[in-house]
Structure formats: C-alpha cells, structure tokens
Amino acid sequence: MDNMTLTLKLWRQKNANSKGAFETHTLAGVSEHMSFLEMLDVLNEQIINEGKEPFAFEHDCREGICGTCSLMINGYAHGPQQGTTTCQLHMRHFNDGDTVTIEPWRSQAFPVVKDLVVNRDAFDRIIQAGGYVSINTGQAQDGNAIAIEKEQAAGAFDAATCIGCGACVAACPNASAMLFTAAKVSHLAQLPQGEVEAAKRAQKMVAQHDQEGFGRCSNITACEAECPKGISVAHIARLNREYISASLGSETQVN
Amino acid sequence: MVNWFSRFITSSIGQKIIMSLTGLFLITFLLVHLIGNLQLMSSDGGQSFNEYAYFMTHNPLIKTVSYGLYAFILLHAIQGIVLWRRNSSARGSVGYAVKKDRVAGDNSRVSSVYMGALGTVILIFILIHMYQFWLQMKLGNTEMITYGDGEPVKDLYTLVSAAYDNVLFVVFYVVSMIFIAFHLWHGFQSAFQTLGLNHPKWTPLIKTVGKIYSVAVPVGFAAIPIYMHFFQ
Ligand code: HEM
Ligand code: SF4
Ligand code: FES
Q: Given an 8 Å threshold on Cβ–Cβ distance, is B90 in contact with A176?
C-alpha cells in the first residue's frame, strides 16, 4: 500500500533535565516500501515545513550493522518484527490507520539526551572495563597458526554479531544489560587470543555492569526475543560460568 | 579473603547464585516433604504419619538440616525481595507508555516476569502454614498418642485432619500450590541457567524434568487436603 495514514505518538523532551511528554502527529502518504526511519524523515520534513522543531532520533548505517538506531515501537524494542533493527523495519508491517507509539529506550543507565535519543555511554564503559584483547602489535602471524575448534569459532562469531544497540536493556523487564555483557565476554572467551585475559575480563565487566545501575538478570529471555541479532541467553550462562570460575577459581583479583 | 568473596557474592551474578542454590535446596526439600506427607492419606488413622513426624523431629541429622532449611527460606526470600526491588527501579523514573513483554523459545512469560510477586505470595503461604502446623507442634498444642508399646508421640495427624475439615483451608492450600507451580515452572530451569549449566545436550532434559516437577509436586501436595477433606 502506497498511501497509509498513521497517527504517531512520539516522545518529546528538550534535554536530559526537562520533563518530557508525548506529542501526536498525523502523517499521510506513508509508503509500505519506506523503512521506519525514512517514515520519520518524512514526518520531520512535515514538521520543519510547519516551522517547528524536528524530532531527534539516532541513526547511522541504516543497514542493520552499526547499532545506532534504537526506538521502542508499540512496546517492542526495534518494533514488533523480530531479528530486525529499527532501520531495517519496513512500513509494510503496519496498516493504514494504525496508531504507532514511539519511545526512547528506558533505563536508569540510559538517560534521555533529547527526544528519542538516549546516552548509551554505559555500554562503552563496560567495554572499556575489559571487552578487548591487549595485543602488542608486531610481525603479522601466520594464518592458521592458532588452531580453534569449528563449534567454538562459530560460537564466538555468534556472540560477536552483537551491535551494542541496547535493545536487550530496553526490552528486559529488569532493564538488565546481561545479554550485552555476556555477548562481549563470550565472544572473547571462546577465542585463544581472548582466553589469556578471560579471568580479569569477566570480573571487571560484570563489576562495571553492576555499577552502571542496570538491573539483575532473572533469565526472562525478553532480551533474546528482542535482540536484532538473536543473541542467545546461552551466552549469559557462559558469562556466569566464566564469572564463577574467575572469581572463585582463578588467582586473578580485580578491585 | 573477605574482600574477593564479598565482591563475588554481592555482585549481580553472586546474588543470583544465592537465589539458585537456595532455590535448588528448597526444590529438594519439597520432594522429601511431599513423600513424607503422602502418608497422611494412608488409612491407618495417622499412625505412620505420626511416627514419621516423630522421627523427623528427633533425628539429629534431620534436625540440623531443618535449621539449614529455615535459614535458606529466609535467605531466598530476603535476597529475592532485594533483587525484585532493585530490578523494579532499574527502568528509571519514567517508564514506558506501551510495553509488551515477549520471551524467547519455550520460556514462560508470566512465570518469569512475576517471580518476585509469586515468591511473596508463597512467603505468606509459608508463614501461615508454619504458624498453623509447625508452631502448634513446637508449642506442644497437640495431643499425645501411644502406638503399641512405643514412646508417646505428638498426634499431628489429628491437627492436620481437623484443619482440612474446613473447606476454606482446603481451598487455601490448593490455591497456594498453584502459585508454587508457577514459581517453579520458571524457577527450576532458571536455577541451572544461573549456575551456568546451559548445554545443548542437557538443557532440554533439565527443562523437561523442571516442567514435570513443577506440575507433579504441587499436584501431589494439593491432593492431600482434597483427599482428607472428602474421603477421610
Ligand atoms: C517453595 C519455596 C520456593 C522454592 C522451591 C523456590 C525456588 C526458586 C527457584 C528454583 C528460583 C530460580 C533461581 C534462579 O533463577 O537462579 C527462584 C527464584 C526466585 N524466588 Fe523462589 N522459591 C521459593 C520460595 C520463594 C519465596 C518465599 C520468595 C519470596 C519472596 C521467592 C522469591 C523468588 C524470586 C524473587 C526469584 C527470582 C530471582 C531472580 O531471578 O532475580 N521464592 N525460586
Ligand atoms: S545483545 Fe542484541 S540487543 Fe543487546 S546490545 Fe547486542 S545486539 Fe543489541
Ligand atoms: S542505523 Fe545502524 S543499525 Fe540501524
């Protein structure tokens, strides 16, 4: 359908310190071929033409790989379509006359910056706490010098598909970031290069996760259901194993 | 020592491990409790049940374990309520206007989202249950009865059977079991996931056993008051 009319309820908030509220707009001429963000672009153009301020929302690659776009759409992180980022969600999943409620991610650890944009620095700080491999660069290594089992490499790849979007936090009834933290820990723990710092990494990243004010995981699996990359909660179990053995078994202590 | 251990046990994962280990202990206890209580339905006027109760309250090993049980119920409940409150505030001051909860695979949405509320109802049940039977027994508010030429034992059977004459208590016990079933429908498999025990070969088995347990054990408990009310 090339000519849908939608009622859009969007969150409007001037800045981090002001109180926000919903604003309702009607948008006509929405094509089913538009992506959700293109639909918002058209809405913003309409609002600019009315001489008002457009809505701020985040986006970058618009091809589902960078994790910049967010948005809670009708109660679902990245919208009702599973395995899809907001930028890859298309308007064909909506019907003429629909009311669409659009909200920013809600978490104590993700304060609203403006309108639909939240600050996700908490994720960066979790990564900085240990989500890396320290490598002294030098001669490039021979390909295939370090052997790795196929299942393990595939497991690391699965975890590595996390784009850090924060949908897991947004969807989790506890606003927990365990799936994100687990994906990062699990990715590196399964690789020979990452194993070296595994004990330190698990302890530091979990400590940072807790300090940021995210909730605690209750194994609800809402995160896996809404994750655009379908990251499995099996990675959370691996994080727990890593954390238990690092905290109780390894000699590595972190402060 | 205190440092690294307290850091571990107070972390988000450490707190969940407390929930998991105490929960698994309570799961084991419930099964033993059920097997013992099924003797209430034997038609010997309560002899086997009363003798069993006497054994359970006089064997030193079982007495020691029972103090552990009280402590674990308290620990599970307190830690659970702490987590529940912590998690309800993590969303921040402004919540969603529209929020749909969807879960992955065969996980139960209702059970998993409402663990704290279900647990609180169970806690109230446990307090009433212990006041009604355990405390009355401890205070000695029971008749003594002697079988053959053995020691006189407390007649707990009559205490229980009198309670279940009242249909309201039957309903109360049956409804409480439904809450326990919901709590365990999620809790059983969740306890393994928390400990990191998620494995493509074993997890399907754990989930199946969890579902059977969380239905069969509450049904077994619920059958006792129903049977005693209508048939004894
Ligand atoms: C019959 C007694 C009970 C049994 C067998 C039981 C069992 C369990 C199990 C196995 C779990 C899963 C642990 C995990 O996910 O790692 C759990 C979680 C939980 N229980 Fe219980 N429980 C009982 C009573 C209670 C009571 C009295 C409360 C009091 C408030 C409670 C509150 C909770 C909460 C809040 C959770 C979720 C913790 C989380 O995932 O964040 N439970 N329970
Ligand atoms: S785990 Fe999934 S939902 Fe969470 S940040 Fe990564 S990609 Fe986004
Ligand atoms: S804009 Fe990059 S993933 Fe959506």
A: yes
Could you say which of 3.30.379.10, 3.10.20.30, 3.10.129.10, 3.40.50.720 is the CATH number of the domain covering A4-113?
Answer: 3.10.20.30
Q: Going by C-beta distance under 8 Å and a sequence separation of 6 or more, which residues neighbour residue A118?
A: A70, A104, A105, A107, A110, A111, A112, A166
d(CA B108, CA B106): 6
ipTM: 0.94
Q: Of A44, A59, A99, nearest to A75 (Cα)? A: A99
Tens-place pLDDT, residues B195-231: 999 999 999 999 999 999 999 999 999 999 999 999 9
As given in the structure block, the two tokens for residue B182 are 């919901």
pLDDT of res. B2 = 65
What's the gap in Å between A165 CA and the centre of ligand 3? 8
Check pocket membership of A255 for ligand 1, CB cut-off 6 A.
no
The Å distance, Cα A10 to ligand 3 centre, comes to: 19
Q: Where are the domains of chain A?
A: 4-113, 121-249
State the pTM of this model: 0.94
**pLDDT (tens digit per residue) in A25-82:** 999 999 999 999 999 999 999 999 999 999 999 999 999 999 999 999 999 999 999 9
Q: Which domains does chain B have, with CATH numbers?
A: 19-231 (1.20.1300.10)
The span from the CA of B126 to the CA of A151, in Å, is 46
User: Could you tell me if the CB of B16 is within 6 A of ligand 1?
Assistant: yes
Query: Where on the phi/psi map is residue A162: left (φ > 0), alpha (ψ -120 to 50), or beta?
Result: beta
CATH dotted code for A121-249: 1.10.1060.10
